[in-house]
Input
Amino acid sequence: MNFLITGATGFVGSALCQQLEQSKHTAYGVIRTPDAVLPSSVKPILVSSIADLIDQPILSEIDVLIHLAARVHQMKDTAIDPLSEFRAVNTEATKDLAIAATAAGVKRFIYLSSIKVNGDGQSEPYTELSRPQPTDPYGISKWEAECALKTVADETGLEVVILRPPLVYGAGVRANFLNLMKLVQKGVPLPLGAVQNQRSLVYIGNLVDAIAVCATHPNAAGQTFLISDNTDISTPELIRNLAKSMDKPVRLLPISPVLLTILAQIFGKTATVDRLLNSLTIDSSKIRQTLDWYPLFSLQQGLDHTARWFQNTH
Output
């Protein structure tokens, strides 16, 4: 089979391209600069934007389109109208690409969505039956893209598969997770010892393996899956495990989460602190039951691999 991967040089796309090197399928990776690096077995498709991909003849040769490219969640968004910016890339471009794909004969469309479609957390784990309640422009644009894809599927027969991961970590991770590892590496005392939350995570190796399975498994057609490492962890436990993997001492101060929330509001860091204090868990049993898929790596193995990459590169 022929796979086409958008966002092929991104965090998830790079790992997926490496995963597909071991497969019998032919992979094409969409790139936006001629000097972009892909595995030798992945054939580059150079475009200036996703909109340009719509007119590419290669679409007629593709069996499965794996759409990873997106305008990602941004902690400090400088756009005048963030929702419009997110919709243009994540919703409208995705819909147009799906329409062009089905017209060209593509059979299956894999869409990497986000647990942000469901919301920012609740007392019970999210499932595929939980009512979508996106709270920010990124989550809204992802949910609207899912709705648009389902409409295209209903009208054309395109096999749409949607994956909603929580926080993805692994080699190449950036943003808050990378910043947390830097603090652990330096041995900075962190005021998170009293936090009693639970978070679901997914290791990049598990996510790309699930994407590869969804690309070919007959039972994946038309499905939406929530995916995780199948082990939840608190923020203090995460820090302790990272410190152990990095062979660093742990310095956790038992500061009241209420006080941390107040300080976050004062200093304009509410979104960042909420991710450290609040719970967000998912029940990923559906993908295991439907596709007989199980994570290749445990949470601790994923953290060990991530810590090893961090120490080798930082």
Summary: The two ends are 38 Å apart (CA to CA).
